[in-house]
Every structure is written in C-alpha cells, then in structure tokens.
Specification:
- The complex is a heterodimer of chains A (458) and B (288).
- In chain A, helix 5 runs parallel beside helix 8 and helix 14 packs across helix 16.
- Chain A has two domains: 207 residues, Spore Coat Polysaccharide Biosynthesis Protein SpsA, Chain A (Alpha-Beta Complex), CATH 3.90.550; 211 residues, Rossmann fold, CATH 3.40.50.1000.
- By secondary structure, chain A is an alpha/beta fold.
- The longest helix of chain A is centred in the middle third of the chain and has 22 residues.
- Chain A has 20 helices and 14 strands.
- Chain B has 288 residues and is α/β, with parallel strands linked by helices.
- Chain B has two domains: 111 residues, 3-Layer(aba) Sandwich (Rossmann fold); 118 residues, Rossmann fold, CATH 3.40.50.
- Chain B has ten helices and eleven strands.
- Chain B has a ten-stranded mixed beta sheet with strand order 3-2-1-4-5-10-9-6-7-8, with helices on both faces.
- In chain B, helix 1 links the parallel strand 1 and strand 2.
- The chains are: A alpha/beta (458), B alpha/beta (288).
- At the A-B interface, helix 18, helix 19 and strand 14 of A face helix 6, helix 7 and strand 11 of B.
- Strand 14 of chain A pairs parallel with strand 11 of chain B.
C-alpha cells in the first residue's frame, strides 16, 4: 500500500480536495498532511477530509517532509503539493507504477507547462556543469515525487526551494534508479517574481553544496565564471520582465512602517536588553554591530521571532497608503537593517512588492546566530554614496533591478541610519524622526503617525 | 534635484560667450553622457519692434527666424563632432519673454542644468543676466552654471562650497554629485564672525556631507565681512575649479556699485560658478 504525504502551509482552499483525490486511488491507505503551522483552517479541513494531520515543529518544507516520512506506515511514499487542484486523474498511479514494477527506486513527476524561469536559467545550467548525468530531467524542480521509504530516510533534506533538487541529487548520488514520468497537464501557479531571487539562491546553493560534497575538486574557477554568467542572464531576464516600473517608494521598517523596533522587542521578550544597549554603546561599526546583535538571537525559533513580529503594531494607514501608491504606479519596497524573515512578514501584511534585508541563518528552524548580509548592501565602484555598507547601496541595487532612476524614488526613514538613503533618494522623507539632521536632509518631514500626506507628495 | 545629469540647456545669443558655455556643456555631456539643448529666444520686444517696422518698412521678420535657425544648425554641426558619448545636441527657437520661455522649456523637457556664458565688460548684459540667473535658479530649481572665460580646465577637482546662514542642502547634493564623478575635494568655507552659530552650521553641513557621501572634505574659516568676496579670494588662492553659490544677497559682491548693478559672485569670478537656489522645497506636515 501507499502513503501520500502533503506538506501544507495556509492551503485551506485546496487541501480537502487534494486529500479526497488521494483516497480515490485504491492503493492509498494513508494520507499524511504535515501542517507547517498554518494561520488558517488547513489542519482542520485536512482532518475532516480523512487525513492524518501532523503539526510540524518548525517551519520549512524539508523538515515537514522528514516529519511525514517518520510517521508513514508504508514502504512506498508519494509526495504531492497541497496547492494544486485538480490533479490529473492518474497522477498517483503514474507516479507509483515504476516502483510497483520494480523499475525504479525514485520517481519524479513532470507535467505539461511552460518552462520555469529558475529551472531554465539556474537549475539546468548548473546541473549541466556539475551533474551532467541528470540533465535529462525536464523538470528537476518538480515537487511531485514518489519513492521508497528506505531511500528517503537516508537523505538530508534542504529547506524551502532547495528541497526538491536536493532529493533528486541525493537519489542520483546514492545510485538509486530514477525515472521521470509525465503525469499530464497541471495548472501551476507561477511563482511571484519577488520569490524568484530566493528560489534561484536556494536552488543554486543546494546544487553547489551537493557538488562540493560529492567531488570538491570539480568546482573550478572556470565553473565559477559560468555561474556568474548564469547570474547575469538571470538578472537580465528579471530586468526585462520588470521594466514596466518607473517610480518607486522605499520604506524603512523599524519605527517607520512599524511602531517599534523588532530587535528591541526581541530584547525585551528574551531578556537581553542590557546586552543590546551595551553593544550599541560599545560597537560603532554598523556591520560588526549587525553581526553581534544576530548572536543574541541564537537558538530562537522562527515561530518565536514571528510571534514577536506579530505583536508589533503597524502604522494604521500603512496598508492603505501602500495600496494607493501601487495604484499610482509606484513599486513599493522595504529596505531595512533588520532580517528578511521579518521584513517579508511585514511585506505580506502591508502589500509591499519586495523587501531587502539581512538574512538570519536557521538550522532546523532555529537561529544559528549567524547573519548573512546581502551583497546589495555593500558598496561598489559605482556606489552613489561610497559607503562600504549602507542602505543606499541596496536602494541603488533595487533601482537597477527594477529599472527605476534614483531620481524617481521616494524614501521614507526615521533614524540617523537613514540619513544617507533619504539624502540620496529623489525625494527623501523623514518620518516622526528625532534626528535633527535627518529632518534637515529630508525634502519632506512627516511628524504624525500617518503616511496619508505621502499620497499628495508622490 | 536630479542625482545625475541627463539634459543640459544652453541659451544661445550667437555671441562669443556662447562658445564658452557650449564648450563647458560639451565637457559635461561627455562626462555624464547627457544631451545638450541649444535654445535661442527671439524676445517679445524685438518681435514687437519688428512687427511695427513691418507696417512701415515692409519688414519681414521670418527672415530673422530663418537666419537664427540656420545659425543654430551650424552650431549643432560644428559641435556635434566634439561629443564622444551617447549624448545628442538638440536645437530650438522660442519666442517671447526669455525668462518665461526658458522656465517653461526647463520644466517641459526636464532640464537638469543651465549653462550660460557671461560677458566680461557689458554692464547692461550683466544686469540683465544677473536677473535671469537669479530668476531661473529660483523658479526652476535647476542649477545655473555660469562661465566667464574659455579656460582649459575640463574637470572640477576643487569645489568650493561657501556656507552662510543655513545648511545648503541642495548645494551639498550638487557638490556630492559632481565630486563623485570628478573625484574632487569639497572645500566648505564659512565667514568667521558669530562663531557659535556659524560653527554649528558649518559642523552640521559637514555632518550632512559625510552622512550622504564619502567624498573628501576640508573646512576653512574665512576672514572678511562679505561671503562672496572672501569665497572668491579663497577660491583664487587654492586655484579652485568651481564655486557653488546661491542667488541670495549673501552672494552679491560688496560695494554700492555692485549692489546697484546686482553684481553676483558669478560676475566677479573667472572661476565657473553654479548657482543653486536655497532649500525652498522643504514641506513640514505637523499633526493635523
């Protein structure tokens, strides 16, 4: 018999239909939905449809898949996505047939659709360089897979977008028999363009890590140049696709979109306020300060951090004003010295289009204390301000990426850290600031907790 | 203010001073890869005179316009070969009040800078163009670069930024933009006088400059009572390439004759001067 595992996060609209679809196949006697702490009714609807529901301890697709495998009672396992409805009728049959006939140990499902941008621009060229043996797969990033439990249990799962390519590579390196089957036509939602960067990064990271562990000597300088060329092409494609924007509004997050600072709230909740103050007093280099503050968050889980984020109040009209700005044709983004986990949360809640921030590193859902600072925050010879580490560099990066002139940007900030980005924007706005120089630099000063006046300025 | 230059306007009168302005505009266009707009304005008074004349003497003013267009085309052909980047030379003839026409043109075609050649010894022209420079800088918020001689310098390595009664934000932005491109040093200068206030303003100006850029800056206190004159003397001493001024009285040259004839710093200087209006665009929204 077969176990179907469905990792799910906020999929209440489709989850019941997917579970029922699985049970229609007579070979399926167990459907496990691994709920990734959804904020909607995903878990309840899945249970109602007859699935065994496991609540994942930590967020991330890889961890959910691992949890599902540990709870499964059958040797043959199928993984399906929770957001596809309807599936072609014979999906499960097609996926498990090679396993039942003992022709394969791992089956990858491919379906009719336009080629994915990350697949074509990132995954396939990298696989060509490092793993030419598996370039035959038309959709190496597909998440519809089936395999034997004893093979799955020997795999280290990556998280998020790297998980599917990671499984394929592990199976290949374990010399499992792999087969790709066509399961028909699926209406697959395209990834939002702002997710493409994250997806590209995680997919390429997964491939390169596997290549290094498989044969470290193989990663030569020439190959690194090829990767840079791929990166350039990816940027070019994105720029071409996003060239419709001509003006942009950038918000700072802490004390601007939010009534409060994330790290201060964390300090209060986790009891490191005094250490934080000492650090701020003693460490004048902002880059090192960022690194040292991240250490204070070591061991904190994604959920704990998101809970704190959830407790911070947004400026009341932030969402409406962002929506109005978008109607006026502005691309709206967040550039912050905080963490992308949190800025993405604010981005979702406000309807902003993108966010640029530092990346807090997590291992098995818990902060490692390391922080990755995106290269866009670092200066280059073309840097407007010349600062080695500055939000203005990130603004310049966003302008180049989205094809917007710096003179057509509005930047809203509140603190001394924002002087440079506000001063170098087309129009700088200070928001409820206590920094006198920032309000001098800014073209417009907002002294009330409302962004409404931005609309007349934009 | 734009953080880069895309379009430069050069008002053309078909005199020798045009050549200095166009030559400087070409240098800028080659550095910033921007376009040059050569604009000739047929003034309202001359139109009126010629229309009256046409009633009595069968005067045909279309010949003047044709002649002006021909001269503009010649200028474009002459200078086009000096451009070595992506920039182009556009030509236009406008009719009416020069100040109004220039303002409209600047707004309509999004000019980022005006470059003007100044006559050396023509008093009437000096008064007229002083008014034009001040009005243009104030009305359009576009910087006006004035050139009084040909010169051989094709860069702005030493930029002098005099600081008066407030932080000159727009001039700071202009200075950082040019200094970034030409890898220049900015000399912040203030008049020694009421030192507490002046020192605070100079310090704050330095803070702002260092907050938004990493360009090298030097600060100097100047002796004297007139900021324009002291700045000019200092600039000559250090062999400066550019002075950034504003059109306010503090940048008028001293003496009753200079006051009457509204002699701007630009007229006393053989060093190019950029006149940028003070920060008129700041808006405060208080709790409503």
């Amino acid at each position: 018999m077969i176990t179907v595992i469905i990792p799910a996060l906020n999929e209440e609209k489709t989850i019941a239909a997917v579970v029922k679809f699985c049970f229609q196949n007579p070979l399926v006697d167990e459907v496990i939905v691994v709920d990734d702490n959804s904020e909607d009714h995903t878990a309840a609807f899945a249970k109602e449809a007859g699935a065994t529901v496991i609540i994942s301890k930590t967020r991330g697709k890889g961890i959910s898949m691992k949890d599902g495998i540990q709870h499964s009672n059958n040797e043959l396992i199928v993984f399906l996505d929770a957001d596809i409805d309807p599936y072609p009728e014979e999906t499960i049959t097609h996926l498990v047939e090679p396993l039942l006939l003992n022709e394969a140990d791992f089956v990858k499902g491919a379906f009719a659709r336009n080629a994915g941008r990350v697949t074509e621009l990132v995954a396939k060229p990298l696989l060509n360089i490092f793993f030419p043996g598996i370039t035959r797969f038309s959709q190496p990033l597909s998440g519809m897979i089936a395999g034997r439990k004893n093979f799955f249990s020997r795999i280290d799962f990556f998280n998020d977008y790297g998980v599917d390519i990671g499984i394929l590579l592990d199976m290949y390196l374990m010399q499992a028999r792999i087969k790709e089957v066509n399961i028909g036509y699926i209406v697959n939602k395209s990834k939002p363009w702002e997710a493409l960067g994250k997806m590209s990064s995680e997919v390429s990271k997964a491939i390169i890590i596997k290549a290094q562990s498989y044969n470290p000597a193989e990663v030569t300088e020439a190959e690194i140049h090829s990767i840079e060329a791929i990166n350039r092409e990816m940027n070019k494609t994105l720029r071409e696709q996003l060239s419709g924007f001509h003006k942009m509004v950038i918000f700072d997050m802490d004390d601007t979109l939010w009534k409060g600072r994330f790290i201060d709230k964390c300090a209060k909740a986790f009891g490191f306020t005094a250490q934080l103050e000492d650090l701020r007093y003693a460490e004048k280099d902002s880059l090192i300060l960022t690194k040292r503050i991240a250490i204070l968050l070591k061991g904190r889980s994604i959920d704990e951090l998101l809970q704190i984020a959830g407790s911070i109040e947004l400026i009341e009209d932030a969402k409406n004003v962002i929506s109005e700005l978008k109607k006026k044709g502005y691309l709206v983004g967040i550039i912050s010295n905080s963490y992308s986990l949190i800025t993405n949360y604010v981005k979702q809640n406000t309807g902003a289009s993108f966010s640029l921030a530092n990346t807090l590193e997590f291992f098995e859902g818990k902060a490692t204390g390391e922080v990755n600072i995106p290269s866009c925050f670092f200066g280059s010879p073309d840097s407007i301000c010349g600062h080695a580490y500055c939000k203005t560099n990130a603004l310049q990066f966003a302008c180049e990426k989205y094809n917007v002139q710096t003179s057509n940007t509005i930047v809203v900030g509140d603190s001394a850290d924002d002087r440079c980005i506000v001063g170098n924007a087309g129009k700088g706005v200070s928001f409820c600031t206590k920094d006198i120089l920032l309000s001098t630099i800014a073209m417009k000063r907002i002294e009330e907790h409302s962004f409404q006046s931005l609309l007349s300025f934009a | 203010m734009s953080t880069d230059l895309h379009n430069i306007l050069v008002p053309v009168h078909f005199s020798s001073r045009d050549k200095w302005a166009i030559a400087k505009a070409i240098e800028l266009a080659n550095t910033f890869q921007c376009n040059i707009h050569l604009v000739h304005i047929v003034t309202s008074s001359s139109i009126l005179f010629k229309e009256l004349a046409s009633n009595f003497f069968l005067y045909d003013n279309t010949a003047d316009l044709t002649n002006a267009r021909r001269q503009l085309v010649d200028l474009r052909n002459q200078y086009r070969q000096h451009l070595c980047g992506k920039g182009k030379i556009e030509i236009s003839i406008l009719k009416g009040n020069p100040s109004t026409q220039l303002t409209d043109y600047i707004e309509q075609f999004e000019m980022d800078m005006v470059v003007m050649g100044l006559a050396r010894f023509n008093l009437f022209h000096r008064i007229l163009s002083s008014v034009t420079i001040s009005r243009l800088a104030r009305k359009t918020v576009v910087p006006v670069l004035t050139i009084r001689s040909t010169g051989l310098v094709s860069h702005f390595k030493k930029i002098v930024l005099p600081v008066g009664g407030e932080i000159p934000l727009r001039r700071i932005k202009m200075a950082t933009m040019l200094a970034r491109t030409y890898k220049s040093t900015v000399y912040l200068v203030g008049l020694r006088g009421n030192e507490n206030v002046a020192e605070q303003i100079l310090n704050n100006t330095l803070d702002v400059l260092q907050s938004i850029s990493t360009i090298p800056v030097q600060c100097f206190w100047l002796e004297g009572k007139n900021l324009a004159k002291s700045t000019l003397d200092f600039s000559k001493r250090i062999n400066a390439d550019l002075i950034l001024a504003n059109p306010l009285k503090e940048f008028h040259m001293p003496g009753w004759w200079s006051r009457i004839t509204r002699k701007l710093l630009s007229y006393g200087s053989s060093i190019p001067v950029i006149t940028v209006d003070k920060n008129t665009e700041n808006i405060t929204v208080s709790g409503e």
